[in-house]
Write a structure and sequence with these properties.
The protein has 272 residues and is of the alpha/beta class. The protein folds into two domains: 2-212, Alpha-Beta Complex (2-enoyl-CoA Hydratase, Chain A, domain 1), CATH 3.90.226.10; 216-263, Lyase 2-enoyl-coa Hydratase, Chain  A, domain 2 (Orthogonal Bundle). It contains twelve helices and ten strands. It has helices at 36-51, 73-78, 87-96, 100-107, 123-130, 157-165, 167-176, 182-187, 200-212, 216-228, 234-248, 252-263; strands spanning 2-4, 11-16, 19-24, 57-62, 112-116, 120-121, 133-137, 141-143, 179-181, 193-195. The chain has a seven-stranded mixed β-sheet with strand order 1-2-3-4-5-7-10, sandwiched between helices. Helix 6 packs across helix 7 (167-176). Mean pLDDT is 94; it is low at 1-7.
Length: 272
């Protein structure tokens, strides 16, 4: 089933079984992140995913040859859109604009996989980092390239990237702005797997379906524990785990999983 967002077709939305496929759909700009329609699309689609217990995993990819080229450099040149106004006004533009995307990701309850089909540059690299898992085409390229256009990572890249590749690697990428290839991205842990271009979506879908085979509510709680653990103390993490574990033991899906274990059959989960 293919649906467009309530605002426009900047992100296409398709459901395949228990998996949602989101496709950045601005190939003419190499899927640059700009404009109210795209920011609103992330928010509305993620809210849709959060409300639909039938969706157990999601994939984010790009239309055309690029995953995401980052910010709109033409708008930077013209001091238009987010880049218009005084320094204070630009800061507010960022809060009301592109920074809505990482905040939407932080609220997303469904596990999401980035299927990186081509270059992920600047904010595009950060967008991939916002996802829970990253699989890349062997033709993909990555750059934390903000310094190359004389700006800083304004979308949270300095928060996301070090948590994936460590401070030193993140600093090297952010301070040089240099591009790395897919093999280097795999070596430093920026992505977890490389595949041939024509196999990327199938590989991402296979992984999403393996995730989606598990109880939907427990998947969401487990993701929240992983996100909280980025900043929580051990005691805080244990307290949260205990609270959600108590709820998990009282779900019908837990009872079904245990029954299926003893019956030696595949479980059938219903999200309750």
């Amino acid at each position: 089933m293919m649906l467009n967002t309530p605002t426009d077709d900047s992100i296409l939305f398709e459901v395949r079984g228990h998996v949602a496929l989101l496709t950045l759909n601005r190939p003419e700009t190499r899927n640059a992140l700009s404009g109210e329609a795209m920011f609103a699309a992330f928010e509305s689609l993620f809210e849709k995913l959060n409300q639909d217990q039938n969706i157990r995993a999601a994939i984010l990819t790009g239309a055309g040859s690029a995953f995401c080229s980052g910010g709109n450099v033409a708008e930077m040149r013209d001091r238009a859109g987010m880049f218009e106004g005084s320094p204070e006004e630009i800061a507010q533009n960022y809060r009301n604009g592109i920074q809505r995307i990482p905040r939407a990701f932080q609220k997303l309850q469904v596990p999401i996989i980035a299927a990186i089909n081509g270059p992920a540059i600047g904010a595009g690299n950060d967008l991939a980092c916002m996802c829970d898992i990253r699989i890349a085409s062997r033709t993909a390229r990555f750059a934390e390239s903000f310094v190359k256009v004389g700006i800083v990572p304004g979308d949270g890249g300095c928060w996301f990237l070090p948590r994936l590749v460590g401070f030193s690697r993140a600093a090297e990428m952010a301070l040089t702005g240099e591009t790395i290839d897919a093999d280097e991205a795999l070596r430093i842990g920026l992505v977890s797997k490389l595949v041939e271009p024509d196999q990327l979506l199938a590989e991402a879908m296979s992984l999403a379906q393996r995730i989606a085979a598990n109880p939907p509510q427990v998947l969401r709680w487990t993701k929240q524990l992983l996100l909280q653990a980025r900043t929580a103390t051990l005691d805080e993490a244990l307290d949260s785990a205990g609270l959600w574990q108590g709820q998990a033991h009282h779900t019908a899906d837990h009872a079904e999983a245990v029954a299926a274990f003893f019956d030696k059959r595949p479980p059938v989960f219903k999200g309750n």
